[in-house]
Amino acid sequence: MENLLLVIIPIILLVSIVALTIGLILKKKRLWIISLIFLLCDLFVIACLFAVFFGYIYSTHTFSLSPDKEYKIIIKGDEPKWAFGSEDIMIYARKNSIFGVFNQKVYKTEISNDGKSLNESNFSIDWIDKNNALIVLRGEEQNDEYLSVTFGKNIKIEQKKLK
User: Fold this and answer.
1) What architecture (CATH level 2) is domain 59-160?
2) How far apart are alpha carbons 6 and 50 in whole angstroms?
3) Residue pair 92/76 in contact by the 8 Å Cβ criterion
4) What confidence category does residue 4 fall into, taking pLDDT thresholds of 50, 70 and 90?
5) Residues near 71 by Cβ (< 8 Å), separated by ≥ 6?
6) Any residues with CB less than 8 A from the CB of 140 and at least 6 apart, and which?
7) Helix, coil or strand: residue 41
C-alpha cells in the first residue's frame, strides 16, 4: 500500500501541474481555473493521507531508541473513548532515519485504563539486544500485554505470552 501511494501521488501532482501550465501558456482561463482546483484538491488529499497514513493524528506518548540508536519504537495514542472507554494506541517500529517511515511495522491495540489519559507508567520498552525489544502495555482494567519486537530485514511485532 505504501509503495502504491508513493507512485500514485507524484503522478497526480504531475498531471495537475502540467494541466495548470498548459492553461497558463495557452491563456485558457477555464483550463487554468479547473487545473488549479484539481491541484488544490490533490494537495489536500495528500495532506490527509499523510496525516492518517503516517499517524500524525495520534499524539506521541513515548519512544525508545535501540542501544546502537539504529532502530526506534514509538507509541502513539488518541484520547480515551467517551466516559470510561479504552484508548486506541499504535506502536511504530522502524529504522531510526528519515526513510524509516517507508519500512516500518505498525501494530494497533488498545489499553483499558478506566477512561484516564495514558502516561509513562502505562508503557515500558526494554531492549533485549540491539535488534530485539520487549514492550509491556499496562492498564487499570486489563492484564499486562507483552509485545516482542524483532528488527531485521523485515520488522515483526508479535504478542507474547509470559508464564
Assistant:
1) Beta Barrel (2.40)
2) 11
3) yes
4) low
5) 65, 93, 94, 95, 96, 130, 131, 133, 151
6) 112, 113, 114, 116
7) helix
Q: How many CB atoms lie within 10 A of CB 46?
A: 16
Band (pLDDT 50/70/90 cuts) for residue 54 is low
DSSP 8-class letter at 116 = P
Label residues 130-144 b or e (16+ Cβ within 10 Å = b): ebbbebebebeeeee
Length of the chain as a residue count = 163
Is the sign of the CA dihedral 148, 151, 153, 154 positive or negative?
A: positive
Domain-wise residue ranges, the chain: 2-53, 59-160
Full-model pTM: 0.64
